[in-house]
């Protein structure tokens, strides 16, 4: 059993290696062996304030489809963590920030374990909505208490305040995702760092989990909210989906 498990691990990592080198990979059934998803960083991540095991969150702006099923819808969260930090100085020739991707968290609270890498990254565009992916959620309009019928209920043909709130949140999420996709600098074949001076990406894939390593010839490595990323990962295993606590 242990031998089979090791084979599965090596196979999954080999698929990711092939995807990095070739940009795409397909199984014998013409189903993608590796899933890709576009996402944006929700909150700034920078080396001078980061700590080991610090979590960060990405917001997906595309769907992950497996066998015709949307397993990770746009608007889901992808959670990762910092596993290594090194700042350029006397003991280091370059700054290094290494991260791993742990899981996807769906809107209903279910979690899916992930094994993947950041294959490409693009700097957030200043002065645009995509530079702050939480803008729409933080500045959503509160449902106005107007047009109410007797007793505070909604008039016929109008949404209740709670329904208006849900509708507003849904529309805001769709609007933010739409704006981000319009300004997307990455495509499915992208690789490396775009818009970052002196920054490079590499990957450690010999043992799980896969590690994405950002290296810079400068002291500072900083990713603003809205930074775009292309994730490549082994196809999510729905059997490992669980409800978060």
Task: Give a concise summary.
By secondary structure, this protein is α+β, with helices and mostly antiparallel strands.
Give a written overview of the molecule.
This protein is of the alpha+beta class. The protein is 19% helix and 33% strand. The chain is built from three helices and 15 strands. The strands form three sheets. Strands 1, 3, 6, 7, 8, 9, 10, 11, 12, 14 and 15 form an eleven-stranded mixed beta sheet that branches. The chain is globular and about 50 Å long. Residues 5-9, 20-31 and 127-176 have low confidence and may be disordered.
Attribute tags:
eleven-stranded mixed β-sheet; 3 helices; two-stranded antiparallel ribbon; 245 residues; alpha+beta; globular
Order of helices and strands: HEEEEEEEEEHHEEEEEE
- Average pLDDT value? 75
Secondary structural class? alpha+beta
* Overall body shape: globular
What is the beta-strand fraction?
25-35%
